[in-house]
Design a protein that fits this description.
Elements: E1 10-14, H1 22-35, E2 39-43, H2 47-53, E3 64-68, H3 72-81, E4 85-88, H4 96-109, E5 113-118, H5 131-148, E6 154-159, H6 163-176, E7 182-183, H7 191-207, E8 213-215, H8 222-235, E9 243-247, H9 258-269, E10 276-281, H10 287-291, E11 296-302, E12 305-310, E13 313-319, H11 323-337
Helix pairs in contact: 1-8, 3-4, 5-6, 6-7, 7-8, 9-11
């Protein structure tokens, strides 16, 4: 899989099972692949874990990345056994001779390197700088080190748990390098807050045209990371191949169960991979205007009736009980025709 250069933005995640537990880790990797994960990362911390990784490497359609924190020798072995990329924090590897040994192994095996810099592991020499500047300077320092060894197959990340710092760092880095950037807000948390924090940071950068691959870092099931990443790509306008449903927040003018209609349509269209936009509006006050850009739309009119829109034009009045089957027929027709 190619990252950068105008290629599709890749969704990444990371296993959180015990790497030595082959059955659990293999099963989690399989779940990630089914969920649509493009690249999966595995923490490798010992020789025993490298042996376990032989059960994963080459067994999936998605590339696997070895996450190394301290021992460069583990990174060398991971490059040699077939991992598709090595992620390491240069500040944790040690002197340049160790980095060169890793670079030589990656060159020999055609393995890219992601330089992963976090605010929690910045070198002392950068501590006096503003956090976003420190992230950038640290990353570029290690890029230059790899370049001195003639290595250029590089991806960079500069993550913070602070959203503003993260966004500032990536914007600055984007202005100073053409290497692919791996986006993410590190330690973003769990559940709704973690998703929102990641969506603000990653989404802001994507809308700026920054980023080539991303991970939503959430505490818990990594499949949730993939699901959140897909939503961020869709709502940032990057991934348009899905059924988008917009709906109004409703007020007392809405005289039908709009939420149930939306829920039914979402459930029925979740697997669609074609660009379709549907508007479900509570009344005709804003309905026609909001539905103008939709392929199909409805607006409640009271007395159990709703106006049906196609390409922004009212085509007929239907019973509110007919909204879901009518709209689904229209969607099916559009998907089947490929238009």
């Amino acid at each position: 899989m190619l990252i950068g250069g105008g290629n599709r933005i890749a969704v990444q995640s990371m296993t959180n099972t015990d790497t030595l537990d082959v059955e659990a880790t293999y099963e989690q990797l399989k779940r990630l692949q089914i969920a649509g994960c493009d690249i999966a990362r595995i923490a490798v911390s010992s020789n025993e874990e490298i042996k376990a990784c032989r059960a994963y490497v080459g067994k999936f359609d998605m590339p696997l990345v070895a996450d190394i924190q301290f021992d460069y020798r583990l990174a060398v072995q991971c490059a040699e056994i077939g991992f598709d990329k090595i992620r390491f924090n240069p500040g944790n590897i040690g002197d340049e001779s160790k980095v060169k040994t890793l670079v030589d192994a990656c060159k020999a095996n055609g393995v890219p390197i992601r330089i992963g810099v976090n605010t929690g592991s910045l070198e002392r020499e950068f501590k006096a700088l503003h956090k976003s500047d420190a992230l950038v300077e640290s990353a570029l320092k290690h890029v230059r080190m790899l370049e001195r060894f003639g290595f250029y197959d590089i991806v960079i990340s500069v993550k913070s748990s602070d959203v503003k710092t993260t966004v500032e760092a990536y914007r600055k880095l984007h202005d100073r390098t053409d290497y692919p950037l791996h986006l993410g807000v590190t330690e973003s948390g769990a559940d709704e807050r973690g998703v929102v924090r990641s969506a603000i940071g990653i989404g802001a950068l994507l809308i700026d045209g920054i980023g080539d691959t991303l991970r939503v870092s959430l505490s818990g099931d990594p499949v949730k990371e993939v699901e959140a990443a897909k939503l961020i790509l869709q709502e940032s306008g990057i991934d348009k191949n899905y059924c988008e449903i917009i709906s109004c927040p409703t007020c007392s003018r809405c005289k039908y169960d709009l939420k149930s209609v939306v829920d039914e349509l979402k459930a029925a269209t979740k697997d669609i991979k074609t660009r379709v936009k549907v508007a479900v509006m509570g009344c005709v006050v804003n309905g026609p205007g909001e539905a103008e850009g939709a392929d199909f739309g409805v607006a409640g009119g009271g007395n159990g009736k709703a106006a049906l829109f196609v390409d922004g034009n009212v085509v007929q009045t239907i019973n509110t009980s007919e909204i879901v089957p009518t709209v689904l027929r229209l969607i099916d027709g559009k998907v089947s025709s490929g238009n």
